[in-house]
From TrEMBL, chain A:
Keywords: Signal, Transport. It holds the Pfam family SBP_bac_8. PROSITE patterns: PROKAR_LIPOPROTEIN (PS51257). This is Extracellular solute-binding protein. One of its GO terms (cellular component) is ATP-binding cassette (ABC) transporter complex, substrate-binding subunit-containing. It comes from Solirubrobacter phytolaccae. InterPro entries: SBP. Belongs to the bacterial solute-binding protein 1 family.
From TrEMBL, chain B:
GO terms for cellular component: plasma membrane. Residues 1-20 are annotated as: Disordered. The chain crosses the membrane at residues 30-56, 87-110, 122-143, 174-195, 280-301. This is Sugar ABC transporter permease. It comes from Solirubrobacter phytolaccae. Gene3D superfamilies: MetI-like. Belongs to the binding-protein-dependent transport system permease family. Residues 1-15 have a biased composition (Low complexity).
Length: 448, 309
């Protein structure tokens, strides 16, 4: 009796659940192509768009970033009194986990910040949740605002298969570099080449100090430290080709092995604090700020906090490489503002994105201590921000930006961050590490 | 159940044929159950069956995205994929820390309290129960600070005795026990409250009898306290086992499953596959497998406890 009614209940709920149809739909063939029905041919006149509420999801929750977007939103609403901006702010992590579902819902926002790479943007393009903005880019001349490397990061082919080429899907406001912060009291003259840098690390170590403070408990910081070193041992184009999954690119090759060997060597020589795998990210940069290490490999997002605590004692440089005039550094741009296919007011959305990335926006970004990604932004007033702005300029002039490795496949963040922890702890040899990451990549590559 | 039903059946047979026996279920009974069943079906059964359905596909979780039929592929992955297999092994190891250790500590405390009526018992019980009341996120964040290798309380405490501190959450062999001990700290209070309450229910005459027979404290514990607590132990074991197996927040906040995969657990894999890795089918398969494992283990615990009473 009992078993029978349980079975009946299951059968009933199976019916209710609507089994028999594949989740998400079997194929894409009968769906409309992702190219927009109407293609913009001239700058839309927003003043004539009537009363519009523009729903925006962004991740600018921290001090200077929040100030920047609030200021620009205010200016935009003043410029177009008929447009009201309904802003939802979420932290990076929260946004990452909700943006895909939000854009696919009935009440989807018009503009969302969708993270680059196959994990978020690629999946959203594949599901036709984002509207390509190539037409608007032509109308507003967006391509002249950025270097081609930065534009490529926001590009996907219409079917979501090719990353780094095809249609443009959005624009970013801020530049990011993962570089080396140094304590001016401990480092008199910053090293300019990798050899000099290693000599300096050894010197700090011999003096009984910690050369590089590193907190890798949260797993992702290891990607930044590893890839910063990788940029100096491998060709920048090889790294880009791998991240964009271009033909013939690989992870398991001698140059990449050299990067893994180098960073493991630094661990063995004691160039990092001893318990980095068990140290949290925030306590690590705070320790650096308190003068407990000479260097810190970190992204420019900690600039403002470090400047607050260290004042003029902190300096910033790109990771030194073989040639001081050809710097290669991990970096890119923050999350691009994109337009959802669900938006009924793509014209207004495009005008908003244009407004967030024009020359006026660049000035607002500088005034609020942010690093504009756009070309020709005004120089900041002083402090470590000057170092950062100069480094950004130098890096872009040399076309030295390499994209984050975790963009590579939807699961790559998980695949590589764990593997780096194992490499650094000596659980995997450098060759085992590159082979393991390669096989995770191949597994995805075969199923795409 | 069987024993209780027998007299009723006998009564039914003896009654007049046209009369419906009072205990027999009538069809109208199902009507009474219907509202509750509808709620249960909508919020539990349908999602469960739907999840089981999704688990048979490779799907990224987005509408308009093609799903490809995977059959039982996602389930074979649970056993063949190294990451998933280790997640389940870790969950079983954590059972020791989340369920077995708290109950042993709880038994010890209950045994002590059974012998000596402590003054201010309620106060001590409240204090020991406190970890259970704190939100798990707070507990995890706090322990992450305690375990911090440079400035954490634990390493500084060890430093006073000249013991060199360890990288508790960053060491491949120490991370899992370190996370497990946080669980022990949280759940021993629960076990203790359940067990001390049970001890108070044991008639004092049994202890008197044991003492007259010349039983020492250990013998007394084995012969009187332990058998008297069988029911409570089963409840405590069931609760803590479920907590152990579905554990997510502690791992998510302290280690993110690292270093490497050394602390990853099934619930964390469900989360990371569904919301980070766009592998919703695989996440559903792990979830269903986890549900099945939890069901099996708690069923076994209750079977054993029932049989021995």
């Amino acid at each position: 009796m009992k078993a029978k009614s349980v079975l009946a209940a299951f059968a009933l709920s199976a019916l209710v659940a609507g089994c028999g149809a594949a989740p998400g739909g079997d194929s894409n063939e009968d769906k409309p192509a992702s190219t927009p029905a109407a293609t913009a041919e001239a700058k839309p006149d927003i003043a004539k768009a009537g009363d519009v509420t523009l729903k925006v999801w962004d991740q600018n929750v921290r001090g200077g970033q929040n100030a920047e977007i609030e200021e620009l939103n205010k200016q935009f609403e003043a410029k177009y009194p008929n447009v009201k901006i309904d802003r939802t702010k979420k932290s990076f992590e929260d946004l990452l986990k909700t943006v895909k579902l939000a854009a696919s819902g009935a009440d989807a926002p018009d503009v969302v910040q969708a993270n680059q790479g196959r994990g978020v943007m690629g999946e959203m393009v594949k599901a036709q949740l984002l509207r390509p903005v190539t037409d608007y880019a032509k109308v507003y001349d967006w391509e002249s605002r950025y270097s081609s490397t930065l534009l490529d990061l926001n590009k996907f082919s219409a079917d979501g298969a090719e990353f780094g080429s095809g249609d443009l899907y959005g624009l970013s406001q801020m530049g990011e570099i993962v570089g080396v912060f140094y304590n001016k009291e401990k480092v008199a003259t910053p090293p300019t080449t990798l050899t000099e840098f290693e000599a300096s690390l050894q010197q700090v170590k011999d003096g009984g100090d910690t050369p590089i403070m590193f907190g890798n408990l949260e797993k992702w910081p290891g990607i930044h430290n590893f890839e910063s070193v990788l940029g100096q041992t491998a060709d920048k184009q090889a790294i880009r080709d791998f991240v964009f999954a271009r033909d013939g690119a690989s992870f398991d090759n001698p140059e990449f092995q050299a990067g893994a060997t180098k960073i493991k060597e630094w661990v063995d020589k004691g160039y990092f604090n001893k318990n980095f795998n068990g140290t949290d990210y925030d306590p690590a940069w705070q320790s650096f700020a308190k003068g407990k290490s000479a260097y810190l490999i970190a992204g420019t997002w900690v600039t403002a906090d470090l400047a607050d605590q260290m004042g003029d004692n902190v300096g910033f440089m790109l990771m030194p490489g073989a040639d001081a005039n050809a710097p290669v550094s991990l970096g890119g741009e923050d999350l691009p503002f994109t337009i959802t296919t669900a938006s009924k007011v793509p014209d207004v959305a495009s005008a908003y994105i244009d407004f967030l990335t024009d020359a006026n926006a660049a000035k607002v970004l500088v005034d609020t201590n942010n690093l504009p990604a756009m070309k020709g932004a005004p120089a900041p007033a002083g402090g470590v921000s000057v170092d950062v702005a100069n480094a950004w300029q130098k890096l872009n002039d040399a076309d030295g930006v390499i994209p984050y490795l975790d963009y590579t496949t939807p699961t790559f963040y998980d695949d590589i961050s764990g593997a780096i922890q194992e490499l650094l702890a000596g659980k995997q040899s450098p060759t085992e590490f590159t082979a393991g990451v390669q096989s995770a990549f191949d597994k995805w590559s075969e199923s795409r | 159940m069987g024993v209780a039903a027998a007299p009723l059946e006998a009564a039914a047979r003896e009654g007049s044929p046209g009369e419906r026996p009072p205990g027999e279920p009538r069809l109208v009974g199902y009507l009474y159950v219907l509202p509750a069943f509808a709620v249960f079906a909508v919020f539990v059964l349908v999602p469960l069956v739907h999840a089981a359905w999704i688990s048979l596909w490779d799907w990224n979780g987005l509408p308009n995205s093609p799903a490809t039929w995977a059959g039982i592929g996602n389930y074979t992955d649970v056993f063949t994929d190294e990451q998933l297999r280790s997640a389940f092994v870790h969950a079983l190891i954590l059972l020791v820390f989340y369920a077995v250790l708290p109950i042993l500590i709880g038994l010890l405390l209950a045994g002590v309290m059974a012998r000596a009526r402590v003054r201010g018992l309620a106060l001590f019980r409240t204090i020991l129960f406190l970890p259970q009341v704190i939100a798990m996120v707070v507990v995890a964040t706090m322990w992450k600070m305690i375990y911090d290798p440079e400035n954490g309380a634990l390493n500084r405490f060890l430093g006073w005795f000249g013991i060199e501190g360890k990288s508790w959450l960053g060491d491949f062999s120490l991370a899992l026990p370190s996370v497990g001990l946080i669980g022990t700290w949280v759940y021993f209070g629960l076990a203790m409250v359940l067990l001390t309450a049970g001890v108070q229910k044991i008639p004092p005459s049994l202890y008197d009898a044991a003492r007259v027979d010349g039983a020492g404290p250990f013998r007394e514990f084995l012969a009187v306290t332990l058998p008297g607590l069988r029911g409570e132990i089963a409840v405590a074991l069931t609760l803590t086992t479920i907590y152990a197996l579905r554990n997510f927040d502690l791992v998510y906040i302290t280690t993110q499953g690292g270093p490497g995969d050394s602390t990853t657990v099934p619930a964390f894999q469900v989360f990371s596959r569904a919301f980070q890795g766009s592998q919703v089918g695989s996440a559903a398969a792990v979830g269903i497998t986890l549900t099945f494992v939890i069901f099996l283990i708690s069923f076994a615990i209750n079977r054993v406890a029932e049989r021995s009473t």
